[in-house]
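Consortium newsletter contribution from the modelling node. Members have asked for a concrete example of what our holo predictions look like. Here is one, prepared for the adenosine-5'-triphosphate complex that several groups have been discussing at recent meetings.
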Amino acid sequence: MMTANELRQKYLDFFKSKGHAIIPSASLIPDNDPTVLFTTAGMHPLVPYLMGEKHPLGKRLANSQKSIRTGDIDDVGDNRHLTFFEMLGNWSLGDYFKKEAIEWSFEFLTGKEWLGMDPQRLYVTVFMGDENCPQDQESIDVWKKCFNEVDMKAEVCPFGERISGNKDYRIFPLPAKDNWWGPAGETGPCGPCTEMFYDTEPQKGALEKTFDEEIDSFRVMEVWNDVFMEFNKNAAGQFEKLPAQNVDTGMGLERTVSVLAGKKNAFDNELFSPLFVKIGELSGKKYGDSEEIDKNMRIVADHIKAATFILGDEKAITPSNVGQGYVLRRLIRRAVRYGKQLGINKIFTFLVAEEVVKIYADIYPELKKNKEFITSQLIKEEEKFSETLERGLKLIDKLIKNINVDEPEAGWRQELEDEGFYGIDSSEIKGKWFFNFYQTYGFPFEMLVEELNNRGISFDAKQIETIKKDFQEEQEKHQELSRTASAGMFKGGLADASEETIKYHTAAHLMLAALRQVFGEHVAQKGSNITPERLRFDFSHSEKMTPEQVKRVEDIVNEQIQKDLPVVCEEMGLDEAKAAGAMGVFESKYGEKVKVYSIGGDPSTSSGPPFSREICGGPHAERTGVLGKFKIQKEESSSSGIRRIKAILE
Ligand code: ATP
Ligand code: MG
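And here is the predicted structure:
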């Protein structure tokens, strides 16, 4: 049986033998990309090179990249989605294309000296074509040839058709939503992809349903995706062939090692089993005992692993209420909650984290190096969570003691409102407040009721029923809202660089410069989140802004917009950028150049310093004139020493 370490090494050896340079995993925290919080795929740190910049190590690269996908967080516990996973990837930067990429994928998957998968268990999808681009016939032809060479027929199954036991159906054309990548923004590189699936239940015989249904029923598991950046989508919406075409592939390490061992689940491998043993010791339950226990254990293991890798990253993120720190907090608290559900009643996440560090000690030495930091932060956050929770439960206690009685305690309403429990306007206990509590403290309804019971506060069945109904209504309302709001934030992968978001990026640069004019040099950007509708921006400053200060910042920004200043991008070395007074942080890797965006002032002449100059990956508006009118909608505290602005362009 192949271990994860062997698989990782084989992958790198294979692509080395095909002339690829092996590059290290980049940090989990993207260097200079305001559109996403975490590195979501191997291609992500390579974007500048996929866009045409020369990579110092050549045109063929491969690596194993630490990745985090928070968009998949609610899927964790199904059989294939992890928050943290490793992506094995190989890239062609304007070098080889479909033929080699597919042939090598096939060779690596099925070759006896490599993974040795039975080709009878392998199925592939390709792009079926639409009004913009035709079906990816070239990929189909290469796949056919690969299968034919091992004496298999490989027929194309028409889209949506039931397979009905036809063993010759190997190639499944699917629409753009499944098999088309990009462009990241409105325009740019994009192209078809081809995905490889492995049959996890060959004993059932040939596939029966449609291919989509076989994916949904978890019978076939996607293990690898080859993306072909073949076209450029231009401003007129046309797809032009790119002169230099790139390949970007990604194989999930955990999924692949599991299916190779005959398992159906990305969790059932040695990258997780020591964690389940530890969680079992702590909870007195056993992985495998029941579906519910397994699911809870997977969530606990997954979240603590992801938290350990975030804390172990060179960037030293700590739990907080913004950006990456917020995701980290959410992961830790969610793990604690599910741990409680399993019956763990002490501070425990650091004990599971110790096992994570052991599993990865040789591959990711940063975990070992930062072990003390990981442990202390986990303990601190867990303690903080239980304190907050205690405080919250006292509030609920207060609410219940006072709401229905003739002589309530003085000032109890105010006290609750001070803690964010608004709208206590009737004599009934409402699910809305429980939802409010859940929002603030992260405790789901059932667990909250249980915690209250433990403290001697109980409800009768009828009360529970009405509270629960209210609670669910509130939750649905909120989910609708947050789905829209977080689409930009958690989707990841340069998802949204539409024209509007580009304008907001540029507005953020203007605003930072304006804030520094008004408040001084201590102001630095502490996070930002941009959707096509608005800009949210955190910066270091400790006092609330007065209405006059808000107005001044708005005026300064609008003045720059009215001047219709040019936005100029230059590439330079990091030292050069710093010397030029550019704002921003950037760790230089492989001595690459950074992009510096200047607004106003011509950097090539001596027409005075620009209004703003920042190291940034872009993209940006070409001139400030297109931004419209800048307006600050809200200014509030984000966390200690950090203010948050919400602004719009009208
Ligand atoms: P899926 O459709 O199964 O969610 P995907 O198409 O979003 O996966 P890609 O973006 O193509 O995934 O990523 C390339 C590979 O990385 C996938 O083929 C899979 O093996 C792996 N992968 C992607 N997301 C996850 C995840 N959340 N957990 C584990 N492995 C993953
Ligand atoms: Mg995929």
